[in-house]
Amino acid sequence: MPNCPLKEAARDAPNHLAIFSRNKSQTFAELDAYADQLTTELRLSPGDCLPIAEPSSIRLIALFFAVWRLGASILPLNPRLPPRPYPLKAPERSALLFTSGSTAAPKIAILSLSNLIASASGAISTLDLRPGDQWLLSLPLYHVGGIGILFRSILARATIVLDDSPDITHLSYIPTHLYRATPVYKKLRCLLLGGAPVGRYPEKLPIYVTYGLTEMGSLVVARHRPPSPYLGHPLPGREVRIDEAGEIWVRGACLFQGYLGAPPPADWFATGDLGRYCPKEGLAITGRKDWQFISGGENIQPEEIERELLALPNITEAVVVPIDDAEFGKRPIAVVCGNIELSALQNALKDKLPKYKIPIALHIIDEMPKNGLKIDRIGIERLTAKRGEFTK
User: What is the pLDDT at residue 80?
Assistant: First the structure.
């Protein structure tokens, strides 16, 4: 059983600020004492699982560690969703997290305390996280990205910021956050960007483009301002390989314990993502295995088209989905947030993509439907089911 990282932080840096909030802040010693207090209030035994649907707060952070100290597990839930009963038994000292379910029903991934510690430990040096730094908790704690912030900060003796602070040094964003507002923090040294294809980003920001997944406890690779599609080599404690079909497989100390009700992964885990690996530049992500479709006998990977769309100046988000076509079987159409006409879009892409990959129709929407933090492609495909609804 691993030592409790919060208990160790309270011992080594008791007076360092663990959590900053405009209403209330706590040192590592105070947060540790709060977690101990909560253990006396919880009626949990080893193997029990606590479902909890609360917004991010000092209490919720302390609850994670209180639950683990009792040998139980925690299932953090989106507080915006309607309550549901979850009578679960789970491995001791683990977090149960719903996967994003981009193309299938979400599953519950089991991440042990050891997995979460290993994931965070292997990322701290790459992300230049130091004692006294401040990381804004911009992602929810029912998402692996939010839990990653929690563990990296505690292990590095950095401060978790619950609302805002002028001294923020680290941020975790999805591209949607960046399109809505450009962060202005004078001390910002690291802005993790992931969860969706990345188009343009302001040159002045310290962007780290990432690839990760719930099943690996968050980050697999992260690279500061990548000059190419390659995102660098795996972070410490991770391994990556590409099979003959181009699928990315991963393993490491941070690899999860399996899905609830299913056997654990044997050794390597097949991610469902496609990529290529360069000995010099590292990993490049080319798309999702289950998003590929065939048009007139040609394979189309939507992400290739989306990257070109996101490079256009008037488009902030883009998704390409197939629609049925009597002649070609499937044809690509574009769903975008932005301001552009179909003819202009097609003209901009004609020198960048072969003709069969250029969208034949366009739908402009104000905001992409989301499944958690990721774009809901199934929802978009349903939205686009009637071809007559689109600009042609």
Answer: 86
Averaged over 17-39, what is the pLDDT?
A: 97
Q: Is 101 exposed, middle or buried (0-12, 13-18, 19+ CB in 10 A)?
A: middle
Are the beta carbons of 301 and 283 closer than 8 angstroms?
no
How many domains are contained in the chain?
A: 2
What per-residue confidence (pLDDT) applies to 199? 65
- Tell me what pLDDT residue 389 has: 47
Dihedral over Cα of 192, 222, 199, 332: its sign: negative
The burial of 127, by beta-carbon neighbours within 10 Å (0-12 exposed, 13-18 middle, 19 or more buried), is given as buried
In contact, 146 and 173? CB cutoff 8 Å = no
- For residue 237, what are the domain limits? 5-287
Do residue 80 and residue 200 come from a single domain?
yes
Separation of first and last alpha carbons in the chain: 60
Give the phi and the psi of residue 241 in degrees, each rounded to 5: -140, 155
Cα–Cα–Cα angle for 286, 288, 290, nearest 5°?
Answer: 145
Cβ 236 vs Cβ 253: under 8 Å: no
Q: pTM for this structure?
A: 0.87
Domain boundary among 239, 261, 287: 287
Q: How far apart are CA 353 and CA 369, in angstroms?
A: 27
User: How far is the C-alpha of 241 from the C-alpha of 277, rounded, in Å?
Assistant: 8
Give the pLDDT confidence of 116-144 residue by residue, as tens digits. Answer: 999 999 999 999 999 999 999 999 999 99
Q: State the pLDDT confidence band at 388, using cuts at 50, 70 and 90.
A: very low
In the chain, the amino acid numbered 253 is: A
pLDDT of amino acid 301: 93
